[in-house]
Amino acid sequence: MKKVNGQGDYFRIKEPKWSWEEIGGLTDAKERLREMVSLPLKLPDIFAKVELKPPSGIFLWGPPGGGKTILSEAAAKSADASYITVKAIEIISEPEEIERMYDTALELAPTVVFINEIDALAPNRKQQLPWSISHTRDAPLRLAPTETTKILYEQLDRMSSRKDVITIGGTYRPDVVDPQLLRKGRLEKKIYVPAPDYEGRIEIFRIHLKGTPLSKDVSLEDLAEKTEFYVGADIEGVVREAKIIAIREKGEEFDSLEARHFEEALRRIPPYLSPEIMKKYNETYEAECDHCYLF
Length: 295
Ligand SMILES: Nc1ncnc2c1ncn2[C@@H]1O[C@H](COP(=O)(O)OP(=O)(O)OP(=O)(O)O)[C@@H](O)[C@H]1O
Ligand SMILES: [Mg+2]
Description:
- This protein is α/β, with parallel strands linked by helices.
- The protein folds into two domains: about 5-195 and about 275-290, P-loop containing nucleotide triphosphate hydrolases (Rossmann fold, 3-Layer(aba) Sandwich); about 200-270, Helicase, Ruva Protein, domain 3, CATH 1.10.8.
- About 40% of the residues lie in helices and about 10% in strands.
- The chain is built from eleven helices and six strands.
- The chain has helices spanning about 25-40, 45-50, 70-80, 90, 95-105, 145-160, 200-210, 220-225, 230-250, 260-270, 275-290, and strands at about 10-15, 55-60, 80-85, 110-115, 165-170, 190.
- A six-stranded mixed beta sheet has the order 1-3-4-5-2-6, with helices on both faces.
- Helix 1 runs parallel beside helix 3 and helix 7 crosses helix 9.
- It is globular.
- The structure holds adenosine-5'-triphosphate and magnesium ion.
- Adenosine-5'-triphosphate binds next to helix 3, helix 7 and helix 9.
């Protein structure tokens, strides 16, 4: 990760590391990102030939720890594009950095710009929090001043005619976002990144256990069965915890992870999502996103 022009550390140019195969489940989200980000950045001439204008921006939303950040990296990587990442919270007080970030994106184009927690940069100022704050992992949000949001919109509008810079804004709070952010020419396409389903969880366990010796009593199907409501980051946490438990117990005798190590890990790590929160996400998806996959 290198700093830009040796200045500040507000946005980062990063080598995208994650690839599609290392991301379990989330088949639909991957497919849409391929179509809407990777292919257009990789094959601009073909898109021009058939007069297909790719979306200028994607609104990527879903529960925290669900894979939004790594999906955006994989989209950049598979397009051989540059990848610039920024946390909205960090750039809030430095609005001129937003313009500099997009200047850099143009210099390095084709580029994916990923703005994490975009709700903080483009908050809905009119509406009360539709979901209660207890649905978030974090303390109440720090919001950008109106002027900063305006600068973001100016930059998104500046990029809207370009085919070589695509912005992906990630959030786990779709309920607090300014509708102006989702206007045509800005983050005009919405992609939902849901909690992984049963098959997805099996894949995520497999990915995070790659290379780890497992005893015969460990069944990934069984683990997936027991982890309804766990997102990718939770599963990663369970695997890490199971490894620590096993090493603590076996020390130098460690040979493999056993089912009971996972059982203890699952007791230690509850899922982030509850049925109640999951319902909020799914209701929002049904209400908002019916047509959002259409190109
Ligand atoms: N589908 C997945 N497959 C494999 N690993 C996953 C998956 N989803 C999440 N992870 C793991 O969880 C970590 C956190 O995921 P990520 O940062 O992409 O979540 P996020 O949706 O961006 O969360 P937030 O809303 O908090 O920013 C990843 O670095 C990865 O190790
Ligand atoms: Mg993220």
